[in-house]
Amino acid sequence: MAKVLLNQTLYQCEQCGKRLLTPHGAKLHEIKYCSVVRQREAMIEHKKRQEFCEHKHMEMSYITPLGEDHLQIPTLNAVQTAA
């Protein structure tokens, strides 16, 4: 059976709303473990990496890679339907 706490002060994460028992635990959760904060930091880091990407304005190349020329040969069914 679950333990029920009476008259217990709970501390809540300001970002995700998770309830914790100690103020230190709540602060530690917000800094290290909160999924909302971690996701926001990951998006910021991703945007920073995209800003400094050297391949930003690359043009598309439609040349087939070496060894994949066989993928460009039309199949027998496609040739028969075209005729």
Secondary structure blueprint with pairings:
Elements (H helix, E strand, L loop, with lengths): L10 E2 L6 E2 L2 H11 L1 H17 L24 H7 L1
Antiparallel strand pairs: 1-2
- Overall average pLDDT: 77
- Helix proportion: 40-55%
Specify the biggest β-sheet.
Answer: 2 strands, antiparallel
How are helices and strands ordered from N to C? EEHHH
Give the CA-CA distance, first to last residue: 76 Å
Strands of the widest sheet, in order across it, are 1-2
**Overall geometry:** elongated
Percent of residues in beta strands? under 5%
Number of strand segments: 2
Q: Uncertain regions: pLDDT < 50 for 5+ in a row?
A: none
Rg over alpha carbons: 28 Å
Q: Treating each run of at least 4 consecutive H or I residues as one helix, how many helices? A: 3
Structural class by SSE content: mainly alpha
